[in-house]
Specification:
Layout: H1 5-10, H2 12-22, E1 34-54, E2 62-63, E3 66-67, E4 71-86, E5 90-97, E6 113-119, E7 122-126, E8 132-142
Antiparallel strand pairs: 1-4, 1-6, 2-3, 4-5, 5-8, 6-7, 7-8
Amino acid sequence: MKIGIRNWISGKSARALVVLIVMPGLAEEKRAWLNGTLIESETRSELIGSAEVESGKTPGIISGGEYSGRKEQQRSYRVWQEYVIETHDLLISAIQPLNWRGSKPAVLTVGGSLRFALEKRNLYISDDTGKEYKCELVRKRAKKVEPETRSSPPK
């Protein structure tokens, strides 16, 4: 029995292929979402270096092997959004790198509830609009739980 390409495409494998192409969300792994409270959210940056560059607006003149045009110092910064999340038993610190000019931090309300998922060294945040952001886990610290003290009856 010969099976041609036409029969193969019209069979079950073609339907399975269409499901995988049309519905990529089925192949994604489900996250174990937790609830917490956003305690702090702050944009931070640090200078990582600078370089001397020639300005593109002013033409330079080379005389005697020296550039006589305009040179400028161009600085490079590392920018990130820092989050502190509190649960009933943990304090979690994470950063979201903002690498590109168009990168924007998650839209969140400080003091409001927050959905997040922990996976190895990553923290995934679902913001107020439902968009998911991948962050780097910086610190996970257990909260100190104060033992309940018994009050002695008055004498």
